[in-house]
Amino acid sequence: METNTNSPEKVYSYSAKFSICKGKMGGFQASPIPPTWNDGKTSEGKPTRKVTKEGAILIELAPFLKEEDGNKYYDWANKKVSFGLGLPDIASIIGSGGAETKLVHVNEKTSETKTLIITPGKGDYEGTFMMSLNVSREGGEKTSSRIAFSSGEWAVFLVLLRSQVPALLGW
């Protein structure tokens, strides 16, 4: 299997996801979306490739659906909520130093506002984090989902965010 070398000549689609499932609380998935490239030519006629859109990290949260035969199922098809972490968002999360982080994305085309809030645990829960994603739509319709991260899960998520920055930039 070939890997992404982050060079314009070898950009592959991503399929791996980082997943956390927390029983009846719900499920979390994060996956990278690679940058978009545009082929062109220099003034001398040599071929070039240029990043036309930076990549992102897609995070999705889904509610618990059912438990059957000892397996837990989550409603990824109908009830998931998603949020695209662009480079400024990733910088805010990494640079927060563990403080609360609030990210807001407004889509004027769909009149949808998504608010992602990451809150550090306190007291007995110090070192853990709670991620809440709230979606408000025109007409007052709201959807919310949340997931708790253990300190180890949060550490892995931060490592994955950091490691993806060069690839999202197309470096």
Explain this structure to me?
The structure is a single chain. By secondary structure, the chain is an alpha+beta fold. It has 2 helices and 12 strands; from the N terminus they run E-E-E-E-E-E-E-E-H-E-E-E-E-H. The strands form 4 sheets. Strands 1-2-5-8 form a 4-stranded antiparallel sheet. The protein has a 4-stranded antiparallel sheet with strand order 9-10-11-12. Strands 3-4 form a two-stranded antiparallel sheet. The longest helix is centred in the C-terminal third of the chain and has 19 residues. It is globular.
How much helix, percentage-wise, in residues? Answer: 10-25%
**What's the end-to-end separation, in Å?**
21 Å
How would you characterize the largest beta sheet? 4 strands, antiparallel
Secondary-structure element order, N to C:
EEEEEEEEHEEEEH
Strand content: over 45%
Mass-distribution shape = globular
Structural class: alpha+beta
Which stretches are poorly predicted, pLDDT < 50 over at least 5 residues? 1-8
Overall mean pLDDT stands at 86
Give me the number of helical elements: 2
Question: Cα-atom Rg, whole angstroms?
Answer: 18 Å
Strand order of the largest sheet: 1-2-5-8
Tally of DSSP β-strands: 12
Ordered list of secondary-structure elements with their pairings:
Blueprint: E1 18-21, E2 27-33, E3 36-41, E4 47-53, E5 56-62, E6 64-68, E7 71-74, E8 81-85, H1 87-95, E9 101-107, E10 112-120, E11 129-137, E12 142-149, H2 151-169
Antiparallel strand pairs: 1-2, 2-5, 3-4, 5-8, 6-7, 9-10, 10-11, 11-12
Helix pairs in contact: 1-2
